[in-house]
Amino acid sequence: MDRRLPPLNALRVFEAAGRRQSFTLAARELNLTHGAVSRQIRALEDWFGRPLFVRSHRRVTLTESGVAYLAEIGAALDRIAAATARQIEQRSRRVLHVNALATFTLRWLIPRLSAFQLAHPSIEIRLTTSNAPIRDLNDPYDVAIRGGPEQIPGHVAHPFLSETRIPVCSPGLLERLPLTTLHDLRRHTLLHAATLPDVWSQWLVAARVPDLTTAGSVTFEHFYLTLQAALDGIGVAMGPTALTEDDVKAGRLVFPFEGPALPARSYFAYVPDARADDPAARSFCNWLRRGDWAARNGADR
After folding, report:
1. Taking residues 239-265, what's their average pLDDT?
2. What is the spatial distance between Cα 86 and Cα 35, in angstroms, rounded to a whole number?
3. Residues 168, 252 contacting (CB under 8 angstroms)
């Protein structure tokens, strides 16, 4: 496209002079001399072949053509400035690649991630999920969230969240089938996750009812599906306290029994040694360690 454009420096000077209705104020704004502003305006008028300002002894005013042109040029320069600012912002943004466990991502990280974004607008999180061991990850990552503690060669480990496991169900289910004692579980369906096949049997042993027979069981491929089934009142799940905390606070889930609570692995952020001193990775790990405090306040102190 063959664009016929006047001298771009002259346009900038014209916009400032027209907006200010003063060559003197335009010169001050642009850090130019009065004579330089006058010459740029004259060059633009010569290019158009008609005046854009009416000059009097102590002031200048826009001609009718100048008023119409200023309206277009001012808007165009505003768009150029906004586009330039976006480019500068994108250049200054740091992309942080985070790989986390799927259920943890859905139940804990995503509900809190906006707090990190508000506190760190220059860091863009690229989030992927996987339950594979860190050594088997193929995609690049700056931070990987897994259970621990583990000694993973070439990584720095940052613990940030601990939990236990205890039965959890919806209030609606309790209204239909109350759970007053452990033996009331006989009337209920137990919800299992294929990734944690033994957790219910371990809990029943800890509760001293290892031979308890229940009304049925349903097994799901992923643990987050098990928790969703509990929310929907399908049965009783073995809920990790950290990942069900928000639903319990909101009244969507309840703990029908006070215990026992099974110990569970803590969550760790594993950072490759090459990223150990990276400011973005360090900010993210610091935020994780503050946990729910960051979710409520959204600040990095």
Report:
1. 92
2. 34
3. no
For the chain, the structural domain boundaries read: 8-91, 93-162+265-297, 164-263
Q: How far is CA 74 from CA 5, 11, 37, 195, 249, in A?
A: 15, 9, 17, 61, 53
Place of tokens 């859905």: 106
Q: Kindly report the CATH class assigned to 93-162+265-297.
A: alpha beta
Q: Tokens 């690649």 — which residue?
A: 97
What pTM, to 2 d.p., does this model score?
0.64
Q: Which two tokens stand for residue 290?
A: 């503050």
Which of 187, 183, 180, 166 shows the shortest CA–CA distance to 244?
166
Strand, coil or helix: 108: helix
- Mean pLDDT, residues 164-174: 95
Q: What CATH class does 8-91 carry?
A: mainly alpha
pLDDT at residue 298 tops 80: no
Segment 13-58, tens digit of pLDDT: 999 999 999 999 999 999 999 999 999 999 999 999 999 999 987 8
